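User: My notes are a mess, but here's the protein and zinc ion's SMILES. Can you give me a structure?
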Amino acid sequence: MTTDPRAHAADFTPTAYRAVLRATRERYRFSTFSDAPEAGRVYWRHDIDCCMDAACTLARIEADEGVVATYFLNMRSDFLNLHSASNRKLIRTVGSLGHELGLHFDGHAHAIASEADLVTALTADRTALEAITGTPIDAFSFHNPTGDMLAHEDDVIAGMTNAYAPRYFREIGYCSDSNGYWRHRRLLDVIESGAEPTLQVLTHPVFWVFDPPIPPKQRIWRTIEQHADLIKQQYSGATAAGARLNIGDDDAFDEAASLDPATADVIRNLHLLGHRRLVLGLLAGELRRRAHTLDEALPELCAATRRTLATTDRGHVPDADAYAAAVAELLGAMTEAGHAHRSLG
Ligand SMILES: [Zn+2]
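Assistant: No problem, the inputs look usable. Here's the predicted complex:
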């Protein structure tokens, strides 16, 4: 787990989010990108590359606190299908809560060699996004903006306000949570200092929805795993609804079939607790490379399990502490029993 002081992991929970909104509300008027920059305004921007569920969670907190934000949606992300029925519903929910919707534009997904190319690409993505949202899209932000993108400094391009135009970016205060930490300044410090008459704040909701807090990389990994689980459930649900066979459904872990039942049970429990990476690491060969028998592997399995149980966010598992203790105890008993000479491979 990272100990980098810039991580400020405790800043990034729903509760802390509400607190920072309240501190901001004391000093600024929440504005959208159709409002011209003036003293006292804050432009509260979200770039959505990863997860509409997380976006919706923050949108509800903001509505609850009576503030408005702009959600810039990435049409070209490998993480996120904005056309899916579930995401369309979440997008409409965010809009119905009073927030603005904008385009989070990935210029790297297009061949852009000129201003005209940029206008063509922006227009294409805007039209596609408007078909999803059913509302006009009047602002955009660049995804992973490089110098060649930021060189396009016009206030309005392709009929949309440019969130990186100097009047919204370089000429006012700017604070971003990119990669889940405060690379330049900590948001609450900026707000409380009162040093910025006008401010743009960029947050990515996926970093703010885990409580207790976990490091940024784990927030992304956990989100990917949650999405994967959802897709698996949809697949299994569809096979059941269509009265189709779901062949292999009983073998949650094919690899575990080669292990004794107690070990396989531990591994399935770890899976239920969400330790997918540990399980896969164990099963997919890490231990097999390093230890030839279960006897040799078990101490490492136990140590890895206890480490993981000690550091994981278990908020989503009912009775997780009792469950974790039981798993740890079982592993301890297995170590003592020895399971001598059982081959893992
Ligand atoms: Zn982005």
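DSSP finds twelve helices and nine strands in the chain.
User: Great, I'll file this with my notes.
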